[in-house]
Amino acid sequence: MPVLSTTAYDQTETALNLTRALINDAAGSVFNDGTLMPLLNSAYRALQRELAEAGVSVLVSQVDLDLPLTSGLTATELTDTSTPQLPTDLMVPHQLWEHQSGSSDLFVPMEKIVSGLPNLQPGSFLRMWEWREDTIQLLGATSEVTVRLRYEKVLPQLVLGTDPILIRASNDALAYATAAVAARARGARALAADMQTTAMEATEKLIERYIRPEQFKARRRKPYSFHRRVIYL
Questions:
Q1: CA distance 57 to 51
Q2: What is the pLDDT of residue 227?
Q3: In whole angstroms, how far apart are CA 213 and each of 50, 125, 151?
Q4: Predicted confidence band at 222 (pLDDT cuts at 50, 70, 90)?
Q5: Buried b / exposed e across 187-208, counting CB within 10 Å, b at 16+?
Q6: Do residues 158 and 144 lie in contact, with contact meaning Cβ atoms separated by under 8 Å?
Q7: For the residues 28-50, what does the mean pLDDT come to?
Q8: In this structure, are residues 66 and 84 in contact, taking their beta carbons and an 8 Å threshold?
Q9: Which 3 state secondary structure label does DSSP give 62?
Q10: Looking at per-residue confidence, does 26 or 5 come out higher?
Q11: What is the predicted pLDDT for the residue at 215?
């Protein structure tokens, strides 16, 4: 009886081995792990950008941040060094909600401002926020507030062959993209172009698999000859 895998993610070594097979270096005599790892990480980052631009939610995370009072006011900005600080894997924030710290109240959406926060006195709640110079700018609040932050994250860099690739079913897209860069480095431009084309096709198929369940069922308008007993979808 075959042994079932304990994770849905491929290991980094799987992508590296496929890359070597694609460029006819299965033994790793030229492209060992150390040589290929920077190329694979480049392909990994590129794939993350493609998924993010396509609106794939696999790179979205969420965290609750407690903002205590300091001299009667909560923090007026969240940065990489503030207390509390922004998540270390944050790329860009998407949405913020808030409620009083320690309460069981529902989180209330905060308003995103894009042209500078208004000159208002702090109240019991933060109410609005702005993303500027890699910081979340706030008006501050006069009571302790918990902020729920939903954001686009950056996946950790691949270092070891046993590291999981945290994008499901992405092994082919990554291996072909890595092989394209490796082939180009050896001057095999035709092979590099072929690998890059296949990598793009694999990426498109991967995106389709992610977004298909999120698509709404298409609907058409009711015709002028509509009858009550007929249901149009």
A1: 8
A2: 46
A3: 18, 37, 21
A4: very low
A5: ebeebbebbbebbeebbeebbe
A6: no
A7: 95
A8: yes
A9: strand
A10: 26
A11: 57
What pLDDT shows up at residue 219?
Answer: 42
Give me the residue label for tokens 């082939």.
Answer: 183
**CB contact set of 24 (below 8 Å; sequence gap of 6+):** none
Strands (E) located in 133-230: 135-138, 145-153
What pLDDT is attached to residue 41? 97
The residues facing 96 across adjacent strands are 149
Question: Rounded distance, CA 16 to CA 22, Å?
Answer: 10
Tokens of 174: 């990554």
d(CA 101, CA 75): 14
The structure tokens 């009550």 sit at 228
The answer to whether 195 touches 32, Cβ cutoff 8 Å, is no
Euclidean distance between CA atoms 203 and 199, whole angstroms: 6
Phi, psi dihedral angles at 131 (to 5 degrees): -100, 110
List the chain domain ranges.
Answer: 12-56+157-213, 59-153
Looking at every residue in the chain, the average pLDDT score rounds to 89
> Which is it for the CA torsion 91, 97, 99, 102, positive or negative?
negative
